[in-house]
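Worked Example 4.2. Consider the chain below.
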Amino acid sequence: MNIQDHIRIVPDFPKPGINFYDIATLLAEPPAWREAIIQMQRIAESYQPDMLMGIESRGFLMAAPLAYEMGCGFGMVRKQGKLPGQVLSHKYSLEYGEDVIEIQPDLIRAGAKIVLVDDLLATGGTMAAAEELLQRTGAHVVANLCLIELEGLGGRDKLSSPFETILKCPA
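Applying the procedure from the previous section yields the following structure tokens:
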């Protein structure tokens, strides 16, 4: 099954010149979604993680079922103000401004092997920031994993841990 056949490309969204890779069409087709999870699971298992961390919000849709299938923990990297209790925050730069992501550090044990998961890697800013944030907990990001990588944007070059993907698509 060709996973890419089940991902809708929406031109000029969210602004002119940008192609949006909409995974909603993949999620609506159980056999295609299952195949995507199976392919990502093969990669993630090779790193023998203790925990998968999903990046808000579509990364949750990939990481949660992966963690369930693999029998390992799942945690969330969220935008500022979305998590209760004690949080660890990290401010990072985007192309046009700044953003803040947070995690609940009490859920991540020091030395844990983490695979960081998102649906798509573009410029790599958010995933690189998530790597830095997780390293501050004493965890070890053993790999970054995405369903889709947009080629030519240099996202993987910003990451300090290995990067894996299922699909490479034009930006």
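The longest helix spans residues 30-45. The chain has one domain: 48-170. Compare this with Example 4.1 before moving on.
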